[in-house]
Amino acid sequence: MIATAERYASPLHYAKLPTEVLVERIRRRKEEQNAVILGHYYQRGEIQEVSDYVGDSLGLSQEAAATDADVIVFCGVHFMAETAKILSPEKRVLMPDPRAGCPMADFVTADALRRLKERHPEAAVVAYVNSTAAVKAESDICCTSSNAVRVVESIPRDRPIIFVPDKNLADYVARRTGRDNIIAWEGYCYVHDDLVLEELAAAKREHPDAKVVVHPEARRDLLERADYVVSTAGMAELAERHDALIIGTERGLVDRLRERYPGKRIIPLSGGAICGNMKMNTLAKLAWCLDHGEHEITLDEGVRSRAELALRRMLELSGGWSAPTEEERKLEEAGVRPSGCGCA
Ligand code: 13P
Ligand code: SF4
Prior knowledge:
- By secondary structure, this protein is an alpha/beta fold.
- The chain is built from 18 helices and twelve strands.
- 45% of the residues lie in helices and 14% in strands.
- A four-stranded parallel β-sheet has the order 2-1-3-4, with helices on both faces. Strands 6-5-7-8 form a four-stranded parallel β-sheet, with helices on both faces.
- The C terminus is likely disordered.
- Bound molecules: 1,3-dihydroxyacetonephosphate (13P) and iron/sulfur cluster.
């Protein structure tokens, strides 16, 4: 039970506690409440260390759907915690800081999407998981950066697709699938969209032998110069096999991989690629959240159940076996990914 003096303490008070005390507190509360901590790779290192599962958005949503914990504490951004609630409505889903939103998700609202759908009634709607529950509820199927190509390929070629909200991922998918009927929303991720060619050229000059791997939320000019375009989990897999990698994504993943492989050259394409929203979660806020049972995600049931349909369609496509995409085939050839594995 929480001590009376701490009942009214704010996360700021918790921030004054030593790290070991916070870590022990988190461990104890987690056990008492049968809670699981899910952490995205872009979280601060100390949050990743206390997380039961660290992954990319696909892995985390699969974990949220499968866990038998009573409470899910989501250390990521708001849409990720919402996704956990959509998939596990009977569980309590908590976030250490409810203000940790994703600016890319905020580019599109359900109202604006409905208006676009009215103009293209024949189109299927694919929502990148980086979107609100209300937007997912307006969509036919979701995708993550790991399975976007596969999801789009599951839609008949002659059917137009409204793709929200990431224009860079939409462009990448359009080129990979050879489709010219994708209507892309004009959103983007400020972290990945800010990666520029000059930084890549500088990193290449210093490490000419390093392979370049870039997240598909980056712009086309960068993706065209990458050896691999893969999602966050794909990057972690690549780091297992390569001794020198230039990585075009958020610093949290790069720092994590550097710690994991101290003997390798894991080079950030940009030292400044930091998602301030992801970093809003701290150990102090996490301990406070478990002590106080806040901040809880709640959703309108109508919105939740429609959003669940779109997410489940995606998970069905990502769970079982399916023919490897070209990118996956390349990874298999490079020995990075077990052959025949259909999971993204
Ligand atoms: P993934 O975890 O799907 O690679 O997405 C990266 C991202 O920007 C999450 O917000
Ligand atoms: Fe959103 Fe980009 Fe931050 Fe991911 S990295 S949470 S897409 S702003």
